[in-house]
Amino acid sequence: MDQTVQTDTPDDTPSFGAGHTNSTDLRRIRSNPDFWYPVAWSKELKAGKTIGTRYAGTPIALVRPTEGTVFALEDRCAHRQVPLSKGKVCGQSVQCCYHGWAYGRSGRCIDVPYLGKGKLPNGVRTFPCREQDGLIFIFPGDPDKADTVPLPPRLARVGDPAYKTRFFGQEVKCHYSFMHENLMDMNHQFMHMKQMGQMRPRFLGQKREPGLVEAQYSFARTSGKQPLGEALIFGERRDSSEKFQHRDVMTIRTEYPYQTLRIQTGDEDPVMDLWIVYVPQDAEELTNRTFGLLSVKRPKVPGVLELAWPFLVAFTERIFAEDREIVELEQNAWRELGGDHNVEVFPVINALRALLAECGVSEPAVNA
Amino acid sequence: MDQTVQTDTPDDTPSFGAGHTNSTDLRRIRSNPDFWYPVAWSKELKAGKTIGTRYAGTPIALVRPTEGTVFALEDRCAHRQVPLSKGKVCGQSVQCCYHGWAYGRSGRCIDVPYLGKGKLPNGVRTFPCREQDGLIFIFPGDPDKADTVPLPPRLARVGDPAYKTRFFGQEVKCHYSFMHENLMDMNHQFMHMKQMGQMRPRFLGQKREPGLVEAQYSFARTSGKQPLGEALIFGERRDSSEKFQHRDVMTIRTEYPYQTLRIQTGDEDPVMDLWIVYVPQDAEELTNRTFGLLSVKRPKVPGVLELAWPFLVAFTERIFAEDREIVELEQNAWRELGGDHNVEVFPVINALRALLAECGVSEPAVNA
Amino acid sequence: MDQTVQTDTPDDTPSFGAGHTNSTDLRRIRSNPDFWYPVAWSKELKAGKTIGTRYAGTPIALVRPTEGTVFALEDRCAHRQVPLSKGKVCGQSVQCCYHGWAYGRSGRCIDVPYLGKGKLPNGVRTFPCREQDGLIFIFPGDPDKADTVPLPPRLARVGDPAYKTRFFGQEVKCHYSFMHENLMDMNHQFMHMKQMGQMRPRFLGQKREPGLVEAQYSFARTSGKQPLGEALIFGERRDSSEKFQHRDVMTIRTEYPYQTLRIQTGDEDPVMDLWIVYVPQDAEELTNRTFGLLSVKRPKVPGVLELAWPFLVAFTERIFAEDREIVELEQNAWRELGGDHNVEVFPVINALRALLAECGVSEPAVNA
Questions:
Q1: What are the sequence ranges of the domains in chain A?
Q2: Is the ipTM beyond the 0.90 threshold?
Q3: The organism sits in which domain of life (chains A, B, C) (predicted)?
Q4: Hey, of A75, A77, A80, A112, which one would you mutate to test binding to chain B, going by the most B CBs within 10 A of its CB?
Q5: What is the CATH architecture assignment of C10-27+154-359?
Q6: Closest chain B residue to the Cα of C12, Cα to Cα
Q7: CATH 2.102.10.10 fits B47-145, yes or no
Q8: pLDDT tens track for B154-183
Q9: Per-residue CA distances from C149 to B324, C30, C128, C136 (Å)
Q10: In angstroms, what CA-CA distances link A99 with A145, B181, B323, C243?
Q11: Up-side HSE of residue B366: CA atoms within 13 Å toward CB?
């Protein structure tokens, strides 16, 4: 069988060399704020402290009182707009570092030390806030929708004793859409050849549902040995001579705005389960902070995964560094060319691009 | 008596949460050039040398001939606009480093080494220039007004043997108005709690005259011990148990474009006398260079102040570092929000804002 | 005889103080792409490798197969615009590092690893490319003109055993026109006084032909000793007492877009022969990369030049550092003033400015 990917239907035939003639540039599509976005790791925010974080140009102060749940305020004092996250947590309120104005959980100003209580000014905006699986999420959009939009029920396999989970991430200087495309197009495995050896992906098919695009692949090693880091993730060594080629299936799904990648054999539990999201940082959304949870199934021999963990960490860091470099180069090219000139020939990526454009927001950013 | 500050009259009632609805943004008001501004410390400019400095985007070459007073030229050669301050001082002239064009005290071009004397091109702009109390001042506005606009008669207590004076300053990345507001609103003492302990300011009243706003405060220590650095400035230790609370009066005055802060008890000479000015650097005036003179009264025991001086320097540096951080954060917020969103509730600060808007210039910068 | 330069004719009388009233600003004139420009040193590009370089904002991938000549492609993969110069050279093609798309010498896409051969997308732009005297040239303009526009027949004296040649250069943050003016106006020798002692240039005359401006000078040392570095270049020591003053003639020529400087005595071979070009890097052409070849005639005693070479290198580096600083200050002034305010009084420089404006392109840059 020919292993080259064929477009699914004649309708999918790309118009080569013409570039996208869409009226909207995908890299100008803003993320839809009516979803839950992680803005910090739980461990970043100690009890009785506040930290500053961002979503799409909006500064956010996260506050963890010594008692009670985390809450989130716009990170600008109503008085002179300096960050509340530079302030002090007092009970269920945070006090601005500059002149001591204090705000409660509801965002209301509850004290100005040098002003009568009857004259208190208005407060600051708040954001619905939840904490789950080691992440602090906010709901930056319409607060009335927060209760009806669910958080993902489970992030990777956090909390499952059969798995060990790595928390990772960093700021990447590109639009979030480049990240989704990078992960879903497994033909980019070519780029990781030095890390992973020559692997040939076979595209098995795609699925498109409202809010969702999914791609499935199998792999065949065409030369070289499987590296240790990869072996740890995939659960066993396989050589190019083996008959087990193409046994494992990799499923990559963008379920807006999150992305997952699972590797599994038949109906068994996945050997690897990744949950990842790319949270826009600046108002133009041309940088993102990545929050990733990578769960690896524990082998039968206890302790092996713990021993090998540093190798797995180093391996994934190298892969991620290569991905970061290339997506930032894509963003640079976009800036220089003044827009998106991609000529995409892979149908699942065109489906993904359509999904991101439909689910996102095409109006300009407030502060852009 | 209630120590919270009440607005003076019903007319002063702030409109909370609405922000300023002025047609002009205070951070876009340019400094009035028809005043004397320091642009360098005297000690920065050695005899026979020239240095480059700035006022509001205009580069200025200060020249100190080996004989005679300092003079000031626009710091761009008429030929190819390179800085004259890179050149050589020859007698009463400065010679451009590039092709040797020479300019006299009047700004006239007096020599082009490869051109006949009859064909000399026009020269460069000059600025009235004076030197006083360790500072070099220029008059950047209409030169005809320079003689009628007085320099401050005395900067702090420079030259008074009863005082020791510290010269300090640096570049701060904000509009000068943030600096004036920072110093005059003593409620920001809250921010210096780590340095100064818990002090509660009591606002005693304000004065408004043409070109002038003044605020008076007394202080009560509400907890903690007086730090050494502060004791040196205030002249003696006072604890919260003492009856002397609120005995000292702090007077902060903006007498456009300068600012002073004095601490005194009754009619005695002040224990501290500060003179400070914030000179815009760039054409948009969103950075300033601060020139401050802080005079501290010598205690009766000779030599004590000299011994303690390093502590006083370190103390004031820490205070100034905190102030600089917060005003730069204000400027950042202004940039991100695209304008001033301050909701000021303190009447004296609103008076100060009105003063700075009235005395300044609202036209756009020449090179902006 | 008066050594000051007189303007040649009354028509040349400059209008002092008025600045240029040309409708076009010389610093906005783009370089004419219909010439051969060096974009890399030969030694930068190893066999079987590719490197990324630039001309006026256009990224260029140079590819040197293990067999055959260098070729040049636009440095953006047709797929996702990432640099091909990050890719792999395979035979006579280069393969993009991201998803493995491959391009041949003609720029045609010859392989997409996951796509049928019948469906290959369009390729990338190519540039005529030649290699000569240690430099790799491209022809960024109309490819049809490449064959009729000659490369300079010889760069300085590369390959001539009677000379030793230094290859030098770096990025300079200014428009290329500042570089031409700097070198041609030898009155700027004033700036190098510390390096070269007091030398007085005498302007001997100028020549203007289509595409060419030439200036000739002689020099007299007015004080100080000749430094070693200079003596090496000029071939012998001369003191101010000597009768040989003004014996050597320096000829500086801009033959668009290149520049040369030769020093010779009578009809003898030049003691020094410099070829230099300033290649715009960014789309606005406000930075350039300088490629210079400096050939120095070998003295009669063999080995002397090799021994002294490090001194010559250090001497020319200091000169070049001074030049770079001043032209970057000129560019800064241009930015601050929002345009060119030069008041040029030297006729040959005005002729040079006219040449650069005529030969260049006044339309705006594509990506500006």
A1: 37-142, 154-359
A2: no
A3: Bacteria
A4: A80
A5: Alpha-Beta Complex (3.90)
A6: B119
A7: yes
A8: 899 999 999 999 999 999 999 999 999 999
A9: 60, 19, 11, 16
A10: 35, 12, 12, 79
A11: 9
